[in-house]
Amino acid sequence: MEALPSLLTNRPDGRSAEKAATNQLTVSRQVRRMKVACISTPEAGHLVPMVQIAKALARRGHQSALITMDCAREKFAKGCEAVGCEFVGLGKGIQGSDAGSGLASELTSKGLFGILFRHYDQVMREEFREWLQTERPDVVVADMVTLGAVKPAKDCGIPLILNVPGPFELFKNMSISLILTLCAVSFLQTRSLTDTRIMLQVMRDILPAFSNHLCLVNSFFGLDTACPLPPNIIMTGSTAPRPSSLVLRETSDERFNAWLQRIRGMGLRIVYVTMGSMQVLEPFQVRAIFEGLLALSPRCAVAWSLKPEQQAFLPGGVEKLPAQFFVQKWLPQGEALQLPDVAAVVTHCGFGGLNETIAAGKPLVALPFRADQPANAKIARARGLAEVLSPPKLTASAVSSAVGKVLNDQTYGARAVEVQRSMLKTGGAEACVDAIEHFVEHGGCNELFEAFLAPELSQRAFAADVDSRRSCGSVCLVSSQSVGCQAQAIQELVLSEVDYKVREKTDEMFTKGKQVVAQMKQRHQQTVQQHQDDIARLQKSSQDLEAENARLKQLVQSLATNLASVNTGYLNGKDFSSPDSCASTTAEDPEATTKQLEASTPPPFAPQARVDADMPLPEVPGFPPLPLSPVPGTPGAPISLAESLGQVTPQRTPLSLMQSLTPTMEMPSPFTVNGRALGGMGEDRIFSFTLRKADGTELGLNVSHHNSEGVLLVEGIRPGGAVEAWNRQCLGSAFAEKAVFPKDRIISVNHIVYNPAAMLQECKEKQLLKLTIARGNVSLPSAPGQAGSASLRADASEFVPGVTSKPTTNGAEEKKEPKEPKDDTPKEDGEAD
């Protein structure tokens, strides 16, 4: 039987035969129509090659079924049905990694791909087993990491073929040491022991699968370095669609086609950007790519396949994109890359995307992140068709420089076309179909698996000793030369990952530091603004208080003026600006005193019955005219700004209107001598004053009296009383003679004249007291015709002493001897309240 690799290598391409001259022969053969199950995880890098194989089988006339997670139905079901391929969705209702939510999306964002693949396998395994038992296909073609298909196929007795969407360079030196190194790198990336353990189990399961099954490696020599192949390895070339002889002018996406027409009208080249279905870009990476492509000169258009949750990182969002940018969740990448308008590709350099770019003959800028991407990017750069950027230190200037270099240097495009020619020498998906037909037609290839691999590539490698490895040294893939290359590759990979992690952590700490500084600056600005607001508020309060203070001063002055004007009008124009104004005019002029008393004392009120109900009320006399000149007064206590703002200051005496004014003068005494008012000349004098006892304050006089004299004799002044307060005010001014002293005689209290008992009782009961004092040897005046108590007139002035100390006694006491009829002996001393 002809060797399988040789058979596939010598098979001519169908399109090449169509272009050949007419003298060439067309060779055809008959094969049995097969029923093939093609199964893969829903991640695009693994699923897309499987979709292309399933479609090629359907176009060849075989009954093929594409089996994957149901979340991929929207993207691939329609295309499969168009060529007669059945789409079978497993795990209905479970979201994929590109959904933006769900377990798969969360695991992808954290880079936990080991757990992600295990999650897919657990969901698909039993449903796939049921499907196999029902449909019984001839063969199962499974993706290399979809290990959930291996055991169900084995249990059902169905042959299995593995599809390997990656370069052979990555697998030809596979060994336990390399697996452990890859797992260590995975742990550095994820910091997850669970994910690392699962990745180790996956890699351990892949080794025996490679050694026990036919493997279709979707690579080609020209990208991979030429080397001998094990008999179960078939290099099929990339499964990506080959360019058609016709120039592609549009895709299956109508919205994208409309944008293409506008760009063609602008005469711009297109840069296509794709990061695959699994890679999640950081905000700074999205901004760097956008700003770098926007700054290209000459200007270029950009078609970008970007996940919705990452579109929010674009400056201004999708709504404010420039007209030359087209950003969408998903684009028909295989078709878009074939467009002649696309001049370069920016990619994460996953193997599927790399091969699609090579199939289209486009140069690229690689932005590798993890897994096989750094190795793929390294191969592409070594072949001269790519520039490589570092994701952790990606900047707009680096993007602009790399893309501009690839666009403007024609050697990148030339090398891309050369590598494309090498790819087109392979059959791709058609070569995969040929291998599957050959495999099924000849009942498998068990003869290919007779210990042709080193023990390191078998399941026994985990327990094999050194002697067993030496015994198979002649067929071991890991030669002494490859060990050195492998060690160097491991070193570069580890250093690259360590550098990536260090830069990532540095950038993270720097970002946090910037955020902290920005927050501190914001708090400082808020504090300064708050203090400025407080200062402005206090200044406003100060101005308001100053205005209120001025208004109160003006009001006090106005009240003082009005009170002085009232006194002047009612007291016949006499100046009562001092306590002396209420004193008697002279003691030697009783006639004048009597006239003043009669003029200033209102007549007694005598109610009269109204004779006629309609009789009008008597006219009210006119108010006396007010003087224009104000009476000067003593300024009140100033208002303090500190006290108004609530600061702790010593307690101040409350502002009193009466304390702010000059002591108001009293009305003339109601006593007259010889028809004249008494004066106040020398030591012998008669004077009057009015005072009001404050609440809790006593009058503070010790008095005695004789009924025969009809006066109260002042024996002493008690501290804390109203009289003592009056004396302090008089003695501190120019009217010291108005003070009350011992031996003074009280001849009238509230118009009660020459009645000691009644005057003493009036002093106890009343708060408003008008006292008439006789001092020295002055002759006592005669009492007016009507004696007794009288209320204070509206125009009378009064003195209200403030409370200076707590009174020592409450009320008043009077000590008198029991009255004896017709006895003129003097009585004992008493106290006036």
TrEMBL record:
PANTHER family: STEROL 3-BETA-GLUCOSYLTRANSFERASE, STEROL 3-BETA-GLUCOSYLTRANSFERASE UGT80A2. The gene is Ugt3a1. It comes from the Eukaryota. It comes from Symbiodinium natans. Transmembrane segments: none annotated. Residues 521-562 form a coiled coil. GO terms for molecular function: UDP-glycosyltransferase activity. Keywords: Coiled coil, Transferase. Residues 578-599 have a biased composition (Polar residues). Residues 812-833 have a biased composition (Basic and acidic residues). Residues 1-22, 574-603, 781-833 are annotated as: Disordered. InterPro entries: Glycosyltransferase_28, UDP_glucos_trans, UDP_glycos_trans_CS. Pfam families: UDPGT (PF00201). This is Ugt3a1 protein. PROSITE patterns: UDPGT.
